[in-house]
Amino acid sequence: MARVALVTGGSRGIGAAISKALKDAGCTVAASYAGNDEAAAKFTDETGIRTYKWNVADYEASKAGIASVEADLGPIDIVVANAGITKDAPFHKMTPEQWNAVIDTNLTGVFNTVHPIWPGLRERKFGRVVVISSINGQKGQFGQVNYAATKAGDLGIVKSLAQEGARFGITANAVCPGYIATEMVMAVPEKVRESIIAGIPAGRLGEPEEIARCVAFLVSDDAGFINGSTISANGAQFFV
Length: 240
Ligand code: CAA
Prior knowledge:
- By secondary structure, the protein is of the alpha/beta class.
- Helix content is 48%, strand content 15%.
- The mean pLDDT is 97.
- The chain binds acetoacetyl-coenzyme A.
- Acetoacetyl-coenzyme A (CAA) is lined by residues 86, 88-90, 93, 134-136, 141-144, 147, 177, 179, 184-185, 188-189, 192.
- Residues 86, 88-90, 93, 134-136, 141-144, 147, 177, 179, 184-185, 188-189, 192 line the site of acetoacetyl-coenzyme A.
- This is Beta-ketoacyl-ACP reductase.
């Protein structure tokens, strides 16, 4: 039986590449998205991957969305918590709204995504959880106190889940992408972006598929002993 995988934020950017890579690896994939109906419909047309709309920041909406995925496709075996947003501002200008929006989506959103799926993984004695963190959760970033806090938080989540899930055959790992050629990075002011690229020894942005391949490996049966770890894919921009 094909494994069932859920990728949040799975119809655009890094998430879309992950959804496709998991489909190519033989999984039955569901991609959730928050708001862009047009992009989701186009993604489904192009890939045949089903898309589901809910806001990961809302626990009840996540629970209901996950229930509808499981009703359509069967129990979820693999969950990739990828959905995330930025609201960048230097700390002295950051508003409580910018702080809360990023915490609610990027950090509480991981809880809301994994928590409803977790009991089923424990019961069935198999699971793969991958959280998409960021280089900026490892090193911090000017203008991203909120985002960096959530992405560092992701690392705490997977290290704790790994310890709780290991005896049930569940692994939980993080991938820390560096700067990847997505709309999110293209939204950074051009001058700032150029100076960031100048600081990447590889001399280029990463490609979404380079992150997707890390995820495809972590969710494979072959990766069963990799648990609580972090894969960095950042073109040598930062080492932990
Ligand atoms: N380091 C040091 N100083 C910096 C700086 C930096 N990286 N960026 C800006 N500054 C300085 C400016 O030069 C300026 O100094 P002066 O007042 O002396 O001129 C001061 O800080 C304030 O800068 P601005 O007035 O330009 O501040 P702003 O309100 O316009 O906000 C910003 C700037 C929005 C934070 C902008 O710097 C920015 O977008 N930075 C990029 C943040 C970033 O990397 N985001 C990543 C998005 S992609 C992503 O998140 C995916 C992932 O996981 C990697």
